[in-house]
Amino acid sequence: MKKCELLYEGKAKKVYATDDENYCIVDYKDDATAFNGQKKGTICGKGVVNNKMSNYLFKMLEEKGIKTHFVEELSDRETVVKKVEIVPLEVIVRNKAAGSLATRLGMEEGTPMKSTVLEFCYKNDDLGDPMVNEYHILAAGFATKEEIDQISAMSLKINEILKEFFLSVNIELIDFKLEFGRCADGIILADEISPDTCRFWDVNTHQKLDKDRFRRDLGGVEEAYAEVMKRIGL
Ligand code: C5P
Quick check: keyword ATP-binding in the entry (predicted)? Predict the structure, then answer.
């Protein structure tokens, strides 16, 4: 498959057209941003980690019945994915209080939630990805009721699969963000699942093994990403 023109350049990825209109090539960068682009930096080797980890997890999810955009890993940083129309929502799944939820509800980070929390944010950098509910989504036409129901069910199933998997390598999945796309097959999982988009805590020490090390200037960012890769066996 031939890599053609650049379609989109985001904060962490470039997306290229290919000579087949049904597919794109994603190219993962080492650039890191936080707080809606206000903090910028580089995490050496992050592109490789995020590409390989996402592909590994997407393959695992496919085997368990979740349809994803993953097609084929081309190189350390490049992957062929199905071309989709991205649903303009960021879906956040939370198992324990952390980050913006801990702040918003005045909870200590690490407080267990009595049940899984699902949040939707409108994907819009200029607005700072504001949180929206089902009424906003329907009223603004971001997605249909059927799509919201499908996205919610898929997100909760993905949480169960990932929680169990990460626990098997001594990592607690605190929360994570998902994005979905529309294609001929309906709604499929898109974007990435990586230490950029998840909170991973060591089960025993609660050490942070994710992008919070960059966001909060904790140091050892590259080492944390490498540790998750090592535990997964990648
Ligand atoms: O910042 P907040 O606590 O709302 O983040 C919840 C989860 O969603 C975290 O795992 C974070 O990495 C992820 N997230 C993301 N991209 C965003 C916002 C949050 O990957 N734009």
Answer: yes
Cβ–ligand 1 distance for 33 under 6 Å, the answer no
Instruction: Say how many Å lie between the CA of residue 88 and the centre of ligand 1.
Output: 15
The CATH label, of 3.30.470.20, 3.40.47.10, 3.30.70.260, 3.40.50.720, for the domain at 85-232 is 3.30.470.20
Q: What is the pLDDT of residues 15-33, one digit of tens each?
A: 999 999 999 999 999 999 9
**Which residues are CB-contacts of 68 (< 8 A; sequence separation ≥ 6)?**
58, 61, 62, 188, 189, 190
**Is there an atom of ligand 1 within 6 Å of 211 CB?**
yes
Name the percent of the chain in helix, strand, coil, to the closest 5: 30, 35, 30
Residue extent(s) of CATH 3.30.470.20 domains in the chain: 85-232
At 127-145, the pLDDT tens digits run 999 999 999 999 999 999 9
